[in-house]
Amino acid sequence: MGSAVNIGTWVILAVLLIFLIRGGYPVLLTIEAAQIIQMHIFLLLDPMPYLEFTFLNSMKYFHFTFFPSLFDKVLGDYSSPATPNQYLPFLNDTTFMRNCSAYVLLFAIMLFLLALFKFLSSRVTHRSKTFRKLCEVVYKDRVRFSFLNDTFWITFLYTVFFAMFQFKYTTTSNVWQIINLVFCSLTLALFASYMIFMLYLGFKYRKDVTEVPKKYSFLVNEPSSNTLEVPLRYLRKFLLCCALLIPSLQGQVICMMALNFCFFIYILFFKPSNSKLTNALTFLLELFYIGIEILFLVYFNVISKTNDIQYGFGLAFCIAQGVILVVLLIWTAYRGWMSFKDIGAIKEWLHNIENAKDFE
Fold it and tell me: pLDDT digit string (tens) for 269-299?
């Protein structure tokens, strides 16, 4: 099963990254859902149903953990003594420097793409005029501003969780412990500052969405009259990381349920998207999160966790999670395909290319 889920994860990521070129919201929402589901592996549950453990462990690539570790050689044999026993089957070390490569490399890739499209769209390159204008449109519409938000979005949960985790064991008896603590503190400050900045923007433009500058268009990537959804999703991610640091499973699950219920109420009353289908899907997604966490709580309270009971719960977890991911992927693929297929959108792109102006 693990191999099948691994292959599925690679395929899904490839499809999502292709559709990310034209439209951000469906892709980012699907990646967020997959990441939130995978973060349940950090619940202090022993034993976790084997099927569920295998499923969640195989989804780790949604956090882009396939990137090589940048600091393994310099850290040598050092490992954090604070790594819980429940994590050892899938994670040998919770040291931040061993688990931050994805965010460092993705930000490096983002900066490289920013420079590449800037160069290709400039008059310095000897490419054809049409190609240069195409690169200019892509740079202005997606790369210049949205790529930064996209990079924060897809790295937020994993990076913030491990940055926060370091403060559970803050000894400074070793030089690597000091370096690791400084690095994670700076990273946590960066991500928290970005979250606060997003909340500020959301509240600033909440009264009139038409006043949102183009550089902040990611606030309303989904056609919407509400600028608070994206900032509140960042806040929910941050608080979910806090919830996972609680030293008991009951506390973790109850806090996660409370957060998801609050977001469920927000979706129910504010209906942030202009699309009824999107609102219905996000509404269903929040109910799914709450249902999965109730199932974890029920499983935890089962006194005799026989093999048959573990198999039954594991199968229920996998089916529920698989179904919601398939639904999200179909929705994302449909939205992405329509954005590429839509004749009006293609005409608009061609018109923008033909009439592209020099950078301001």
Answer: 999 988 888 999 999 999 999 999 999 999 9
For residue 47, whether the previous peptide bond is cis, meaning omega lies within 30 degrees of 0, is yes
pLDDT digits (tens, 9 = 90+) for 20-78: 555 578 888 999 999 999 999 999 998 899 999 999 998 998 898 888 888 887 777 77
pTM of this structure: 0.86
> Which ranges constitute the DSSP H helices of the chain?
2-19, 25-38, 50-58, 72-75, 96-99, 101-120, 129-138, 146-165, 175-204, 229-244, 249-270, 276-301, 307-341, 343-354
Contacts (Cβ under 8 Å, ≥6 apart) of 320: 288, 291, 292, 295
Can you read off the two tokens belonging to residue 27?
């892709």
Kindly state the DSSP code that residue 274 receives in the 8-state scheme: S
- Cα separations in angstroms, 57 against 131, 153, 155, 192: 42, 21, 17, 27
Helix axes 307-341, 50-58, angle to 10 degrees: 30
Q: How far apart are CA 171 and CA 300, in angstroms?
A: 33
